[in-house]
Amino acid sequence: MTSLKGKIVFITGATSGIGLACARQFAQQGARLLIAARREERLQELSTELSSTGTDALWLMLDVRNQSAVQTAVDGLPEEWQEIEVLVNNAGLSRGLDTIQEGKLEDWEEMIDTNVKGLLYISRAVLPGMVSRGNGQVINIGSVAGREVYPKGNVYCATKHAVAALTTGMRLDLLGTGVRVTTIDPGLVETEFSVVRFHGDQERAAAVYRGLIPLSADDVADAVIYCATRPPHVAVAEMLLFPTAQASATQVTRR
Ligand code: NDP
Ligand code: 8X3
Questions:
Q1: Atom nearest to 143 CA in ligand 2
Q2: Probe ligand 1: pick from 107, 141, 216, max atoms within 8 Å of CB?
Q3: What is the pLDDT of residues 44-56, one digit of tens each?
Q4: Cβ 18 under 6 angstroms from ligand 1
Q5: In this structure, which of 98, 99, 135, 180 has its CB flanked by the most CB atoms within 10 Å?
């Protein structure tokens, strides 16, 4: 196991769910944290929480869809924060669960801009530094939706299939640079994901997880930490993580 003590870990979407759990678990490992998302108050609270346990943390209020803001934020990092060793590309969302013929254009734009273009903007800003140092790791949070398409999942599944393709593309292009590339592809994880998907409808969101024990954000963060603590010659390429009650994107058992 490789120590993460003192290493700089950049987590996008750190204000909720999987990203928040990753921030807390990397902090427990002694990492220094760059935490990014759009909700300033939550970033401040997390930063205060992390600092109170002795973690060095810097928060960036950042919308990953804004390419110039992303580049400016990464270029403008204080010198002592520039050597990012682990990038967790986690910021992402689904919007809506509609047939393709009824889907809302603004939902599609938001998913494509965040899950695909946002991930690209962040990666493009961070990767040159990793390559020049000959060291680094990118951990993309993909999804079972990047491996299978489910009814009404159309555009969300397309964005996660794009993440899968980009993960492979990164691994091919970064071969020989010392930069490792991983995708972690969870099934059902109970976070704010479904509340966001259903535009704030808590009841509909809760029904997604009713009658089964879903993964928790910490279960996924455990997997992220596992991948980030492998010795430098070991690259976990991909990990598919289901709750025991799930066997595919569409096959689940409920009590
Ligand atoms: P949450 O809604 O709980 O968290 C999403 C995070 O992404 C929030 O911190 C949010 O912060 C951030 N985010 C969203 N849009 C942007 C943006 N434009 N710029 C910056 N940050 C943004 O959901 P999860 O934790 O479940 O989702 C995390 C990742 O895991 C996503 O990529 C999702 O697709 C993936 N995933 C989730 C699964 C699940 O079942 N929950 C299963 C498989 C994959 P803020 O709003 O403050 O910007
Ligand atoms: C999130 C899991 O099955 O809702 O990516 O698409 S699913």
A1: 5
A2: 141
A3: 999 999 999 999 9
A4: yes
A5: 180
**Distance separating alpha carbons of residues 250 and 255, to the nearest angstrom:** 16
Kindly list the catalytic residues: 156
Closest by CA to 216, choosing from 11, 18, 14, 15, is 18
pLDDT attached to residue 121: 99
Cβ of 22 closer than 6 Å to ligand 2, yes or no, is no
Q: Looking at residue 123, what is its pLDDT?
A: 99
CATH fold of 8-241 reads: Rossmann fold (3.40.50)
Pocket test for ligand 2, best of 90, 93, 94 (most atoms within 8 A of CB): 94
Share of the chain above pLDDT 90, in %: 100
From the alpha carbon of 18, which atom of ligand 1 is closest? 25
Backbone φ/ψ region at 228: left (φ over 0), alpha (ψ -120 to 50), beta: alpha
Domain boundaries, given as residue ranges, for the chain: 8-241
Residue range 85-101: mean pLDDT, rounded: 98
pLDDT tens string 217-242? 999 999 999 999 999 999 999 999 99
Nearest CA to ligand 2 atom 6: 145
Q: Residue 249: CB within 6 Å of ligand 2?
A: yes
